[in-house]
Amino acid sequence: MPPDIGLENRNKPIGVFDSGVGGLSVVREFFRQFPSEEIVYFGDTARYPYGTRSPERVRKLAMQNAAFLMDFDVKMLVVACNTASSIALELLEKKMPIPVIGVVKPGSHAAARATRSWKIGIIGTNATIASESYQKILESLNPNIETFPIACPLFVALAEEGWTIGPVARLVAETYLADLRGENIDTLILGCTHYPLLRSVIAETMSEGVTLIDSAESTVKEVGELLDNAGALRENEKPEHRFMVSDAPERFRQVGERFLGKQILKVNKVSLEDF
Ligand code: DGL
Predict the structure, then answer these.
(1) Whole-angstrom Cα distance, residue 27 to residue 38?
(2) Spatial separation of the C-alpha atoms in residues 26 and 14, rounded to whole Å
(3) Which of 155, 198, 221, 246 is most exposed, with the fewest beta carbons within 10 Å of its own?
(4) Which helix (H) or strand (E) holds 40?
C-alpha cells in the first residue's frame, strides 16, 4: 500500500524531478490543470542525460534526487523523467515515506483506454525502451495489446535546440517512425519528457487516425485524482514555485521557458553533495 498523504499535508509542495529541463513539460501540466499546487522542481543538469545511462546508475541518481527533494518537506514526489520512472520507480516507492508517482503507469493507462486496435507504439530514450517498462505494463493491462517500441534519442536534442518544426525535424521523425507506419497502430505513447514539443511533426508523420498519448498530461491528471481522493489538494491561492538545477541555471532558464510555456524568473544552482 502506498503511504497516505494526509489532510494536514495538503498545503505542502509537490516535489518533481527530472534529468534536466524536460520535466518542465510535467510542471506545465500542473500549472494548467492544478494552478494552486506548489512545485519544487529539481533538474539534474550536471548529470544529464539519463537516457543513455545504465540502470544501476539511473537508480542511484534517482535515489539521490528523491532524497534531496525530501528536504523540502514535499507531500509527494513526481518522477517526471520517463527514463528514471522506467528504471527506478519501484525502488523509490519502496524507500520513500511519501507517495511517489512516475509517468509510465499513467501514460500506459491512458494508451490502453485509447486503443481500439490493441496495437500501441511507444517512443522513448534508449534506456526507457530497453527497460520494457511501458511494454510490461501495457501487456499486464491487457494481454491482447501488441506493442511497437522504438528509441528516438535525437528527438531530445531537437526539442532542446528548438528545432521542433521544419525539414530537419520532419526528416528525423520520418526516419525513426518509418517502420511504425506499416504496423497499423492506432495509439502512440510519447514516452519521453521532450517529445510533447515535437507533437505536431510526430502527428504529421503518423497517419491521421493515430492518437498521441502525452504521459505528462495523464500523469498530472492521475496525481490530481489521488490528491483529490485524499482531500489533499492545496488550498492556498498563491504558490511559490522553486526551480533548482545541479548545473548551468542560465541555460535551464532559457531552454526551460520553451518547455514550460512561461517565464522562469529564478533558478538556483545546488550541489547534491551538500545534502
Ligand atoms: N528526461 C528524459 C526522459 O524522459 C530525457 C532526457 C534524458 O535522456 O535524460 O526519458
Answers:
(1) 10
(2) 12
(3) 221
(4) strand 39-43
The structural domain count of the chain equals 2
**Candidates 89, 101, 120, 192; catalytic one:** 192
What is the predicted pLDDT for the residue at 274? 53
User: From the CA of 203, how far away is ligand 1's center (Å)?
Assistant: 21
C-alpha cell at 110: 491512458
Query: Crossing angle of helices 215-229/24-33, nearest 10°?
Result: 50
6 closest CA partner among 256, 174, 226: 226
Examine the residue annotation and report whether 192 is marked as an active-site residue of this protein: yes
Looking at this protein, which amino acid is placed at residue 229? N
Mark which of 167, 189, 215 sits at the end of a domain. Answer: 215
What span, in angstroms and rounded, lies between the C-alpha atoms of 262 and 209? 31
Instruction: Please name every residue paired with 122 in a beta bridge, in sequence order, or none if there are none.
Output: 149, 189
Q: Which residues of 219-239 are buried (b: 16+ CB within 10 A; e: fewer)?
A: bbbbbbebbeebebbbeeeeb
Residue 25's pLDDT is 95
Instruction: Assess if residue 207 is contained within a domain.
Output: yes
Report pLDDT for 275. 47
Q: How many helices (H) and strands (E) does the chain have?
A: 11, 10
Q: Can you list the residues of the chain whose pLDDT is less than 50? A: 275
Residue 76 is inside which H or E element, if any? Answer: strand 76-79
Ligand 1 binding pocket (C-beta < 6 A) is 18-20, 22, 48-51, 81-83, 125, 128, 156, 192-194
